[in-house]
Structures are given as C-alpha cells and as structure tokens.
Design brief:
- The complex is a heterotrimer of chains A (171), B (339) and C (745).
- By secondary structure, chain A is of the alpha+beta class.
- Chain A is built from 6 helices and 5 strands; from the N terminus they run H-E-E-H-E-E-E-H-H-H-H.
- Chain A has 2 domains: 19-94, Beta-grasp domain (Ubiquitin-like (UB roll)), CATH 3.10.20.30; 103-170, [2Fe-2S]-binding domain (DNA polymerase, domain 1, Orthogonal Bundle), CATH 1.10.150.120.
- Chain A has helices at residues 3-8, 40-47, 103-110, 120-133, 139-145, 156-170, and strands at residues 19-25, 28-34, 66-69, 72-75, 88-90.
- In chain A, helix 3 packs across helix 6 (156-170).
- By secondary structure, chain B is α+β, with helices and mostly antiparallel strands.
- Among the domains of chain B are: 5-53, Uridine Diphospho-n-acetylenolpyruvylglucosamine Reductase, domain 2, CATH 3.30.43; 226-335, Enolase-like, domain 1 (2-Layer Sandwich), CATH 3.30.390.
- Chain B is built from 13 helices and 12 strands.
- Chain B has helices at residues 12-21, 34-39, 76-81, 83-88, 90-97, 102-107, 110-115, 121-124, 166-172, 190-193, 274-280, 287-297, 309-325, and strands at 5-8, 25-28, 47-50, 60-62, 68-71, 176-181, 184-189, 212-218, 226-232, 243-252, 255-264, 271-272.
- In chain B, the strands form 3 sheets. A 5-stranded antiparallel beta sheet of chain B has the order 4-5-8-6-7.
- With 745 residues, chain C is of the alpha+beta class.
- In chain C, strands 3-5-1-11-8-9-10 form a 7-stranded mixed beta sheet. Chain C has a 5-stranded mixed beta sheet with strand order 14-13-12-7-31, with helices on both faces. In chain C, strands 17-18-26-27-30 form a 5-stranded mixed beta sheet, with helices on both faces.
- In chain C, strand 19 and strand 20 (463-467) form a beta hairpin.
- The termini of chain C are far apart.
- Classes of the chains: A alpha+beta (171), B alpha+beta (339), C alpha+beta (745).
- Chains A and C meet through helix 2, helix 3, helix 4, helix 5 and helix 6 of A and helix 1, helix 3, strand 8 and helix 15 of C.
Chain lengths: 171, 339, 745
C-alpha cells in the first residue's frame, strides 16, 4: 500500500454525536463508539468486523441479517445499535461452540441446505430462534415460521429438511 | 435522508415532555417501520425518543372490568402468544401471527403496529408524486399501479391502504386506544383512531404529535368460540394483505347473537360496516346470509383498474372467513384459507 | 491410500463449513484498513439531461471525501470496444458518468465517497439535481408495430437467430385437424441475488489494484477494468471467491465496480461501493416479451404446423437477444414452420441473461400450446409429446449428441404417478380445492467454450488445481475437486481447487449451464498434462522402474504411475516431485473445443416436469403441492449439488409462474416494486414437495466429461408445467406470468 497517500489525506472523520454502546457479541463485550444512526447490522458488520451477518435488503424484507438479541431472533437492519446498548447478541460466528458445529449447522451441510450461502447465516440464526420459541410443531408451521428468511437459490426444501431433522432429534 | 439525535426516556411523562419540544421528534420503540422509512428518506426525525425503557407500558394485565390491557411496548409476538390473549382473544393472536415475519414480530410493538404507514409503491418512492408524502403533488396510483390499493372510502387525493393485520382484529374486537399527552390521558375508540384519506391523506390517524399511545384495552367480551382471520396475498407468507377479513361472533340457538366483521387491505383504515353486522344479528350463520352482508359491505366499493378484483374478492373472502369462523380449528398457519 | 471414483458421488459442498459459520467472505466484506465508502446516486428521471448537480450540501457534510460526477470524473475512453465486456450485446455499452445524458431511470449519476458508509449515504441524499426531461417510452405493448430484427454481433454465435421458414406454414395450419393459437406475456423480472452488488478495491500503489467484486467472471471484470481505465492487465487482480447468488446478474461488470475502481484510482485509496436493494433493479433484467403461437396437428396427433413469434424489449443502446422461438422445432419435428424474433428498443437499461434466458420464456409458450393442443385432440399431454418425439433436431436436421428425454418422460411420470390422472380438466377435487396435474418438456443447449486450468502437485502429495472461474453457489468448487481427483488419480482429500481469482488461468463468465463442461474439461486437461509431465520426469529418474516405457505402457492410479505389464513396477507421484528437487511440479492446459466437430450435432440437456397444483375453488389460491422433474443432462458429477441446482430451478419455476414480476409505471417510466417486500420471490411457506430424478445419459461428444450442466434445465420445464396443471385443475388457461389468484377465482 502506498503509505504517502494515506498520510497526505486529511481524514476529518465526524466524531460528533457519537456515544459508547456496550454490546456483548458472542460472549465478548464490545464497546462501540457509534453515532445514533448506525444500524445494529452495520455495527456488527462494519464496526465489529463480524461479516457473517448479511445485508440482503437493509429494510426488513429478506431475513439475511437475523441475529439473536437477548435470545430472540430479530432483524438487525431494523434496529439501531444505540437501542441495543447492554444487550447480548449472538451472530452466526457465535453459534458453534469450541469449534464444534451446532447440530443445525451440521444438518445444513448434510442436506445441502444452501447454494450461494448468503442467506444461510440468517436461516440458521432464525431457525435456532424458532426452535427456542417452541411454537412451530408441524412442517407446515415450521415453513410459516421460517418464511421471514428468503432464499433466492431455491434451497427451501433442503433448508426445511435440515431444520425438521434437528427439531425431531431434539424433541 | 437525515441524521438525528437520540435520547432514552423512562416514564410516560418524560416521553411526552420530550416529544413536545420538537415538532420533528419521533418516538421509537421496535423501530421496524420507522427505521425502514428513515432509510428510504421518507421519515425525517430530527430526534428519536427511545421509549423502550418505559416499564409501565410493557405489561399485559386483566382490568377490574374484566377487559384486558395491552401495553403499547409489548411486542407483537409476546401479545400473540400471551396466555390470556390466545385463549380469550384468539382472533387477535391469529391476526398478529399473519403479519410480517417472526423476527419482525419479535421487535415490533403494539403501539407501533397502529402507526405503521402504507406500503403504496408511490408513497415508498421518494421521487414519485404522492399526496400522502408530499401534499398537493398528486396521486399516480389512481392511473397507475394499484393492485394493492383501496376500494372503500377512497378519496380523489389518495387510494392508499393501511397495511396492518393486528389492527383489523383490534377493530373487530372494539378495542380502545389509550393515549397520553400534555393535557392528560384520553381514550380513542379503535374505529376512530385511523382516518380516511379525505382531503388530508398525510394524516394517517388522529393521534396528535405530542401524544403517545400507552396501550390498548380489549373489552370483556368472549369471542373465543367462533372467530377467524383470513389473509389473502400474493404469496403464502411475509407479504401484505390484498384483502384480509377478521370475523368474531357469538351464536345463540344457532342464530348469530353478535358478529363483528373487519376488513383489511381495502381502505385507508380498518373497515367496519355496522349496518351489515346488524343485518346478520339474529340470522342463521350460513353462506346466503353472509353473502348478503358481504354485498352490503362492498356496496360503495370502487376499483381503479388493477384492483378491481378486490371488490369480488372481498365478498368471497368475507363469506369464506365467516364460514371458517364456525370452525376455528380449521385455521392454517399464516391465516391461509381453510382446506 | 486408495483412489476411488469421485465423479458421481453425492459429497457435501466443500466450502459448507465456511458458509454455515459465517466465515465465507463476500465482496463487500473485506474490511481492509483505511477504507473509504462510496454511495451511488441514481437518476430519478427516465430520459433527458442533467442540467446541474448542486453538491454544496453534500460536500459540506463532515467526512465526505469527494463527489464524483460526469463533470469531474477521470478521463475515460470514448471508444465503445473498450467498454465491451465478454457478455456485451451488439451496440454501444453503457458508460457510467460519461456525460450528462440520462438513458434510463435509475442510471448512476454520482458517487459520494466518505469516511463511513453512513456519511456517504447521508451525503448522497443531499445532492440536488436539476434535469431537463424528455419524453420516454417504456411500454412494450404500445410499440409492437415498431419491432425490428436484432443486430447481429458476437452474441449471435451462442444465441442463434431463428432458422428460416420451412414448408408452408399457413397452408398446413389451415389444413390442420386441431389448432391452438395463443398469446403469452410476462413482465420484466430482476435476478435479485440475495447478496447486494458490491466491490472493495485495495489500492496497491503505482496504479495497481486488488478488487474484490461480486461477479460471475473475474477474468471478464479484469479485462473490463484494464480496458476502461487504461491499466495493465497484470496490475488489476479481481477476486470473487464467494458470490452470493448470480443467476446472470453478474455476467456483465456492474456499475458499482466501475465507480469503485474510479474512486480508488482518483483518491489512491481503498474504497468500497455497495448497492442498495433498489439499485439492484437498475442494471439489467429478463426482458418483457410478448409471444404468439399457432400450432396445428393432424388427426393422428402429429404436429404439422408450428408458428412462434416473439417480440422482446431492449434498450436504446444495445440489442440484447435471447433464443426464444427456436426450441419448439428442435423438440417437435413439424415440417411447416414459421419462427420470428424481433426487438423493440425502449428507454430502459439493456436486458440481461437471467436463469434460462430465452429458454424459460420460449418454453412457456411452446409447452402451454402443446398442452392446449393435446386437450383439443383428446390425447394425454405426455402421450402427445411422445407421438411427436424426435431423435433428430428437425429445425436443423442434425442428430442429437445424446437425448434421453424419453426416459425423462418415463421415469418422471412413474415417480410422479402421472397415469392416474383424470383426462378431463376440472374433474378432481380435494376438500374445497380443485386438483390438477400438468407436465412440460424442458430443453437447454450445451455451450462449448475454451477455458484453461493449472494443476500442480507437491512433494508432500497434494494436488492443487486453479481456475479463475467463480462458484456462484452452483457447487463448482466441489465438483471441480471431484473431477481433479479422478482425472489425476489421487484421493479427494489430497485435492484443493482454488478459484475466483483473475490471476488464475482464464475461465469464461460463469453462466449458461456450461461451467461444468467447459471448466471441468480444462481441469481434466490440466490434470492429464500434469500426469504426462510427471511420467516424463519419472522416466528420467536414475534406476526408474518405468524407464523405457511409453505413456501408453503405464496407468495412473492411487497417486502413482504403474507399468501396465507389471504392477510391481511403479513410482509414486510424490517421489517424482522429490526426485525433481522442487516443491512442485505444475502444468497448465487449455481445453479448446472442436467446434467443427461439435457443430455436426445438436447438443442439449432435456427435462420433463410433472406438477400437481391445488387451486382453492372459491378464492383461486394456487399451491404447487408436489412436483417431480426428471433430467437428462449427461454425466452428473455430484448428485447432491446437482439435485440442489434442479430444486433451485424448480423453485424459480414456481416463482416465475406464480410470484415474481417487476412492475413498471409507464407514466413515470420506472419500476415501482424495487424491493423484496413487493417483488415477491417464494417464501418457505410457498414451497412444498419437490423431487428430482436424474436419468442415465451417456454423451461422448459434448465434452471431455460428457456432462451437460444443470443450472437452467430445472427452470425450463417447471413454469409451463404449472400453467398446464392449473388448466387441468380449473379449466382456465392463463397465458400470462405470473398467474395471480384473482386470475382464477
């Protein structure tokens, strides 16, 4: 990289209006200095360098940005980081424990429940949230409860197969 | 698009004080619609007042009257799955669960649900003319793409529809909206809360800028035996209603004792027709009577081209949903029609 | 160590772990140091000129670095050829920020670069632009009388124009025993991969750039950037190891790449530019097409007359074409044909290949017409297709290189339970739903192109194969690894296939279902070349057990070279590398198809889709309750990933028939539902029981692997089968897509 160019550039980064937001992401406390208009999604992807959480629409229409916030699945694109001060966030990077994949992650691989992989983190986080909610019992209910996560590759049947397998095993 | 200041408040009084300071301040709770609108450069809050810490608005409790109070900050999910709501007011649960997605329902609040804005393509495109967004600029929907648009209570200025599912059930259940403002508290009957577009389509409802919705009250009425919510849309889930119907009824000796029918996706507000409901009272709950009532409900309907189908569809949906209400166990996830 | 046959095994996707843990990095996710962020502003008018861009408010925002418009852009070449990418149709390619002219709604007109994404986005919204508007035309149906023949160009080579008329269509149609005449329409569609288009450039100094781009062709983007910005090819490296879906949208370099590179070169800094979802509707789409068919058959059920015409939209600056009308006579050998394909230029961006381009459009009209005719004749729809089955391509009088379509019909029908259906429409009910079944044929051609790969083998026994090709979710990485393992005769665990990097050997853009055959053949060729090289070196080792042998005297297996005569005489690959004294031995090889030989044959994959729908009798709501697609696509390298490709195509078929459509307001000249809330792609609740059958098919002609590719074929047959099933359920033939429930209530 050309160092001289970086040094010549005057970076007048606007630090006004920032506040410190404490987020415990995947068990690690992060103190982020962000402006109020930074979305939780951008705080995770850009400010915390956890790019596993995806931006597919930025408007709550695709589900790719799904994370678990205090145990519940939410869309991080429709939340501001400042609103979640003090919250515990689990992203896709925090789903496996000590390198062991979560059963859903394993099931997704076995069932080929993804193609391009871009909706996958959101599908998995959403499915974990759904299983914890415990409101979906039949395959039809699981499909309805997972309908906030779009998959453009058309891996739908494999995704639901993977989730049903884990759901039935954990019952 | 704009930047904004941000402040958390902890009491209703504090919230009202803060909002009174700035005509361009907004409350934020779940944020699921406001953040969407702000990112599209459609809402321009100068300051956001975060009310999520107002603990008095977070409960669901039984009132002395036997009615139920739903705090404005209770999430849509928590409301839908609440033990009392799902047993005594299952119509409300069904309608809530037909809306948005599980993730959005986990964030979105009861108060916010009432304040969501229309999904009209032209409203959502900041560079299109739109009387709701930019009064006086015109309404391209009337001669444009209007598949999703209103057929009842339309005005020359605006044919947008109010997109909520939850509110259709609340309208059917005769809920009351509890509001606090600088001059104290007031109650607004649910059917009076939202407005028709008329000459001021920019105003969706009758809430004043410096007022806050603190909660909703459901009257002590039992509609747990015969009820149904039907939502018709362009895909089986995660889409807004083209037509939706909420029906709640009680029968006595196989005659309709009380019935409420509310329509979504057809007007600028949840649509009730008291005349049609009265017509049905005392009659047998059958297709013939429901069809007659449905025809009364749509008698003033007007199509704009793409949405002409909604007139006939409304009749069919009302009849189907009223018949489904006789067998609520046939309801399927996502408020799809019974099999 | 024993090598087994890897080709044909349903192994899991090799990058699966990275995709389920969030470790897979896509173009906009390289958070490199000193990164500045660009946000694009787009035209809000459809046609005219920019009079003024008032930047004052935007420029005053703290953190804004620069605002790039046509006024202050870097010098750009005027010569069209330099903007022509590998997928450019005939015409004048669009040049972003070239001048003040507005050619379509949503055209990029400025890039705001700032220290943060949020600042750039905010400032971009403050640009005040004054336009001079001109009248525009965006409605295809209003301009059919202006339809004209497409211009010919490079693209015509793989997208042939319709063949000349045969026989006497008019007379044959008039004499036909049964006829059907239909008009078929569908709206514009946008690819909408879930990943937003994004580019991250790393400015390496002295005009060198490393570019992470969302693309279906790293070599294509490298070429484009080098040509447009006057850089040396070697100074531009384009990487795209993970691509969050393509479906054709990444076949051409998109404008965020252009803008990001320009900003990076101007600022000498690292820059990221990501589109938002609305902008995803501003650079190419499946064109609106209006088709007409007239098919006639004799009393024996033989199609004698076949007329198919299509009029499609294109832009005012490029002639995008598709193969729409050619397929019917390739499948059904009518002797009297009249086929025509024309274009109407409109004030829109140039359409672009979108999954099964042309094929899915044309098959809709052809297969719905065939279906309608079968009911006219009172012949079972599948039986009718079998009556008109042809072992040769009648449109060009050529044999097929292979064609197991009959087996597709047979095995698909059996799996689905086709024979139990009622022959009359609207005859079956289940509860309050009408039930219907329908079927359709699918066809997609096998395209042959050159590609190159490199294979190297290390002294510790690892094979590494490289190609610039991307993996857009198709399973390319996995199947190339399988191909390499078998071609080189090593265990799959010892093989790595690296890709998605323009520094690697050239590969064509990834599309058209040809990657498996094209790049797979190059991988095989490189592995074979490396084997040869190892053998040569092995012979020269002192006391070599293979000394004196010719290559025909040895076999390559289990990571070793054996004498055919005496299996005790062998030498391990590893030992050859060790003896050679280097860490690696490498070989590169291009695979150049013999087009003269290939042209003697029609080369195509085939499919048959069988669909059951339930239609709510009162409300018209349609559910595809179950479907089976049987596919003949030559050798299936990996049945698991191939099955996913077909399933994906079937979901796209459901989407095309029942869900997706970009809606244009012709008064405003713009797309209105430019978001995933109103552009409806299927949700999980829309997708029910789907199944796939792969039929055995051997093909020694098409390529080294005998593999035809499976990206498009699953879609080609699905959407018409749904329309046909809806007819069977309801008795209503709806010839427009998408079919909405209000069409049926």
């Amino acid at each position: 990289m050309e160092k001289e160019n970086q040094n010549n550039q005057i970076h007048h980064y606007d630090e006004s209006n920032t506040s410190v937001v404490n987020l415990t992401i995947n068990g690690n406390l992060k103190q982020l200095k962000v402006q109020p208009w930074v979305s939780l999604l951008d705080a995770i992807r850009d400010h915390s360098n956890l790019t596993g959480t995806k931006k597919g629409c930025d408007h709550g229409q695709c589900g790719a940005c799904t994370v678990l916030c205090d145990g519940k699945r939410i869309l991080s694109c429709l939340s501001l980081a400042v609103m979640k001060d003090g919250s515990e966030i689990t992203t896709i990077e925090g789903i496996a424990t000590d390198g062991d994949l979560h059963p859903l992650q394993t099931a997704f691989i076995e069932h080929d429940a993804f193609q391009c992989g871009y909706c996958t983190p959101g599908q998995i986080c959403s499915a974990i949230g759904m299983l914890q909610e415990g409101k979906a019992h039949t395959r039809e209910e699981v499909k309805e409860q997972m309908s906030g996560n779009l998959c453009r590759c058309g891996a739908n049947t494999n995704i639901i197969d993977a989730i049903m397998e884990v759901k039935e095993k954990t019952l | 698009m704009n930047n904004f200041t941000y402040k958390k408040v902890e009491t209703i009084n504090e919230a009202v004080q803060e909002i009174s300071k700035n005509k361009k301040a907004n409350f934020i709770a779940g944020g699921t619609n406001l953040i969407d609108l702000w990112k599209y450069d459609l809402a321009h809050p100068e300051s956001l007042i975060d009310i999520n810490s107002v603990s008095t608005m977070k409960q669901i409790k039984v009132l002395e009257s036997g009615g139920l109070s739903l705090g404005a900050l209770v999430t849509n999910s928590d409301t839908a799955y609440d033990a009392i709501v799902s047993t005594k007011y299952p119509l409300l649960s069904r309608a809530i669960l037909a809306g948005a997605s599980a993730q959005i329902r986990n964030s979105a609040t009861n108060g916010g649900n009432l304040l969501q804005r229309t999904r009209c393509y032209y409203f959502y495109d900041k560079t299109s003319p739109c009387n709701k967004r930019n009064p006086g600029s015109g309404c391209p929907a009337k001669n444009g793409l209007n598949r999703m648009h209103a057929i009842l209570g339309t005005s020359e200025n605006c044919i947008a529809v109010f997109p909520s599912d939850m509110c259709i059930a609340l309208a059917a259940l005769d809920a009351t909206v509890n509001v606090s403002g600088p001059n104290g508290d007031r109650k607004i009957a649910f059917t009076d809360f939202h407005r028709l577009a008329g000459n001021s389509p920019e105003k969706d409802n009758n809430l004043e800028h410096d007022e806050i919705i603190t909660g909703l009250t459901l009257p002590n009425e039992d509609f747990s035996q015969y009820y149904s919510y039907l939502k018709l849309r362009d895909r089986n889930s995660y889409a807004f209603a083209l037509v939706s119907v909420a029906t709640a009824m009680r029968l006595e000796h196989n005659k309709i004792e009380t019935i409420r029918i509310a329509l979504g996706g057809v007007a600028h507000k949840p649509w009730r027709d008291f005349e049609a409901e009265q017509f049905l009272e005392g009659k047998e709950p059958n297709r013939k009577n429901f069809t007659e009532a449905a025809k009364m409900i749509i008698k003033t309907a007007k199509g704009y081209g793409d949405n002409d189908f909604k007139i006939e569809l409304s009749v069919k949906a009302i009849v189907r949903n009223c018949m489904m209400a006789l067998h609520p166990e046939t309801q399927r996830p996502g408020a799809q029609p019974s099999l | 160590m024993k090598t087994s046959q890897e080709i044909g095994k349903p192994i899991n996707r090799l990058e699966g772990n990275l995709k389920v843990t969030g470790a897979a990095k896509y173009a906009g996710e390289y958070n490199v140091g000193d990164l500045s962020h660009g946000y694009i502003a787009n035209s809000t008018i459809t046609k005219g000129k920019i009079i003024e861009i008032d930047e004052s408010k935007a420029a005053a925002v703290p953190g804004v670095i620069t605002i790039i418009t046509h006024k202050n852009r870097t010098k750009l070449p005027w010569f069209d050829m330099l903007y022509a990418d590998m997928d450019a149709p005939p015409g004048t390619p669009f040049k972003p920020l070239y001048d003040e002219n507005i050619l379509y709604n949503g055209q990029p007109i400025a890039l705001v670069v700032a220290e943060t994404f949020e600042t750039a986005r905010f400032a971009a919204s403050l640009l005040a632009i004054t336009y001079e508007e001109e009248a525009f035309e965006t409605e295809l149906a209003a301009h059919l009388d202006e339809a004209r023949d497409p211009k010919k160009g490079m693209a015509t080579a793989i997208k042939p124009l319709p063949p000349a008329d045969k026989g006497d269509f008019e007379a044959a149609y008039k004499d036909a025993f049964a006829r059907y005449e239909g008009e078929f329409t569908h709206g514009a569609e946008h690819h909408n991969p879930l990943e937003l288009f994004a580019t991250t450039t790393v400015y390496d100094g002295k005009g060198k750039l490393t570019v992470y781009d969302k693309t279906q062709g790293t070599s294509n983007c490298q070429l484009y950037i080098a040509n447009v910005f006057g850089l040396h090819y070697n100074d531009v490296r384009v990487l795209s190891p993970f691509v969050g879906g393509g479906f054709g949208s990444g076949l051409r370099p998109q404008y965020q790449l252009f803008l990001c590179v320009m900003a990076s070169l101007m600022l000498k800094r690292n820059v990221r530019v990501a589109m938002d979802r609305t902008q995803m509707f501003s650079f190419g789409h499946r064109p609106q097409t209006i088709q007409k068919t007239k098919f006639g058959a004799n009393s024996e059920g033989i199609v004698t007359a076949l007329n198919h015409t299509a009029i499609a939209e294109t832009s005012q600056f490029e002639d995008y074409t598709e193969v729409v009308v050619n397929w019917g006579n390739m499948l059904y050998p009518a002797q009297n044909t009249s086929l025509d394909y024309k274009l109407v230029p409109l004030d829109v961006f140039t359409p672009m290949d979108m999954r099964a381009p042309g094929g899915s459009t044309g098959m809709h009209a052809i297969e719905a017409t065939m279906d309608a005719l079968s009911y006219e004749l009172n012949i079972d729809p599948m039986e009718f297709r079998l009556l008109n089955y042809s072992e040769v391509d009648a449109s060009e009088n050529k044999p097929y290189s292979s064609k197991e379509l009959k087996e597709c019909y047979k095995q698909g029908a059996e799996k689905f339970g086709w024979k139990n259906r009622a022959s009359k429409p609207r005859a079956t009910k289940r509860g309050n739903r009408l039930v219907g079944t329908g079927m359709s044929t699918g066809i997609w051609d096998v395209i042959a192109l050159p590609a190159k790969a490199k294979a190297k083998f290390s002294k510790d026994g690892k094979l590494k194969v490289t190609s610039a090709v991307t993996d857009i979710g198709t399973g390319t990485k996995t199947i190339m690894t399988q191909i390499a393992a078998d071609s080189f005769a090593v265990a799959i665990d010892d093989v790595t296939f690296d890709h998605g990097d323009s520094d690697m050997p050239m590969a064509p853009i990834q599309g058209g279902s040809y990657t498996t055959g094209v790049v797979g053949s190059a991988v095989k060729a490189a592995c074979k070349a490396l084997q040869k090289k190892l053998f040569k070196k092995a012979k020269n080792i002192s006391d070599s057990p293979l000394s004196g042998l010719k290559i025909t005297d040895v076999v390559f297996k289990n990571a070793a070279i054996y004498s055919k005569e005496d299996f005790s005489k062998f030498i391990n690959y590893k030992d050859i590398v060790v003896a050679d004294g280097k860490n690696w031995i490498a070989a590169s090889k291009s695979n150049i198809p013999n087009l003269l030989e290939l042209k003697k044959y029609t080369r195509a994959a085939h499919s048959a889709a069988f669909v059951e729908v339930e239609v709510d009798e009162e409300l018209g709501i349609v559910n595809v309750t179950r479907a089976v697609t049987a596919v003949a696509a030559g050798k299936i390298i990996n049945p698991k990933t191939a099955r996913s490709q077909i399933l994906g195509g079937m979901v796209w078929g459901i989407s095309k028939a029942l869900r997706e459509e970009t809606m244009t307001d012709h008064n405003l000249g713009k797309y209105m539902n430019t978001n995933l809330g109103e552009y409806h792609i299927p949700v999980h609740a829309d997708i029910h029981d789907l199944d796939v059958v792969f039929v055995d098919e051997k093909d020694d002609i098409i390529n080294e692997l005998g593999s035809k590719g499976v990206g498009e074929i699953g879609l080609a047959s699905m959407a018409p089968a749904i329309a046909n099933a809806i007819f069977h359920a309801t008795g209503k033939r709806i010839n427009k897509f998408p079919i909405h429930f209000d069409d049926l209530m």
